Amino acid sequence: MRVTSTSRLIRVPHPGTARRDAALAAAARGWRVFPVTPYRKEPVPTDWESWATLDHDVIHREWTIRPYLNIGIACGPSGLLVVDLDDPDGEPFPPEWVQLGREHGIEIAHGRDVFALLAERAGEPEAFNTFEVTTPHGLHLYYQRPKGLSTATSVSKIAPFVDTRGSGGAALAPGSAQLVDGHEVLYSIAYDLPLAPAPSFVVAALTPTVPATPRIPAARAPSEARTRPYAQAALRDECHKVENARYRTRHTRLFAAAAAMGELIAAGWIDESEVVRALLDAARVHVGVKEFSDKERRDTIADGIKKGKHRRRQLPQR
Predict the structure, then answer these.
(1) Residue 73 phi/psi, 5° resolution?
(2) Each residue's pLDDT tens digit, 129-138
(3) Domain residues of the chain, as ranges?
(4) Residues with Cβ within 8 Å of residue 230, at least 6 apart in sequence
(5) Which neighbouring-strand residues pair with 127?
(6) Residue 33 and residue 294: Cα distance in Å, rounded?
(7) Element (H, E) at 292
(8) pLDDT of residue 17
């Protein structure tokens, strides 16, 4: 088979039954799998989470007909929380994290270093003692997903270059492959250990907190002639920031935009439905890119607006 790269045709070895066997092995562990575009991360079925299966015959047929398919694991239905630790690929780490690492004797150069720092600070050095898969750019740590943790898919929410895959998210299974500089690189099992419970510091970072409703002092309401243009200008500015966010910051940028607009909604200066429509449209460019899902888009907007509503915006003095 010849696979097209951006500049030339690259010849890669035929996988034979390797992908099919890997898909069957993942299903044998109780992990629901679905077909993924060869050498990429895009699901083949649009309804991949409901398509994901443990059925031996279905898996055998799919990967026999198309042996180059990668193997996706639907983390939600599989009861998994996968922590993805990545290489920064030239992006600088925030200086505060570099400094914090030095204070603990850890040189921060990769997502695994950040995770090791978090584990040490939380007093959970055993956090790495679980099923581990090496990836073309880092590693995946597989954990049991805690019950009740619904929003468990995130990008850099815990720390820089530490992503998570839970409900609404997926991970490529061992045996999948990507092309890196024209060479096929496999996802491989590094440590075949039993799944550990998710570390408490990961669960805490993913568990939404409900802040107490603050007492908002009565204030003289400014005129709509001032608040309406102010709110619309603010919405345009936030949407612009969301559209142009880099993929490592898009989650936090979308949450911050929604929280900022939540303050204006609470003040009665703009309608919530107008804000939701605009932010959904602005974040549309990120859906499907590097595993940013439509569910994450909608949940992040809802969480941000909810937080912002607890702090009513005051109009700046002229």
Answers:
(1) -110, 125
(2) 999 999 999 9
(3) 2-206, 224-308
(4) 269, 315
(5) none
(6) 20
(7) none
(8) 94
Look up the pTM and report it. 0.66
Amino acid identity of residue 134, one-letter, is: T
48-67 pLDDT, tens digit each: 999 999 999 999 999 999 99
142, 155, 183, 255 from 130: Cα distances, Å:
6, 21, 28, 31
Task: Determine which helix (DSSP H) or strand (DSSP E) holds 193, and give its type and residue range.
Answer: none
Strands 80-86 vs 162-165: parallel, antiparallel or unpaired: antiparallel
Nearest Cα residue to 279 out of 246, 310, 314, 255: 255
Phi/psi at 128 (nearest 5 deg)?
-85, -5
Output 107 or 251, whichever has higher pLDDT.
107
Interval 168-196: pLDDT, tens: 899 999 999 999 988 999 999 999 999 99
| 292 touches 250 (CB < 8 A) | yes
- Mean pLDDT (the chain) is 86
Tokens 């994901």 locate to 52
Cβ atoms of 33 and 62 closer than 8 Å: no
Helix (H) or strand (E) holding 3: strand 2-4
Which DSSP string do the residues of 207-254 spell out, in sequence order? SPP-PPPPP----PPPPHHHHHHHHHHHHHHHHHHHHT--TTTHHHHH
| Parallel, antiparallel or unpaired: strands 2-4 and 9-11 | antiparallel
Distance separating alpha carbons of residues 271 and 144, to the nearest angstrom: 40
Query: Which residues, 6+ apart, have CB-to-CB distance to 89 below 8 Å?
Result: 137
pLDDT band at 310 (very low <50, low <70, confident <90, very high): confident
pLDDT of residue 127: 95
User: What percentage of the chain has pLDDT greater than the value 70?
Assistant: 88
Name the percent of the chain in helix, strand, coil, to the closest 5: 40, 20, 40
Helices (H), the chain: 18-28, 48-51, 56-65, 75-78, 95-103, 111-122, 200-206, 224-243, 250-266, 272-283, 294-308
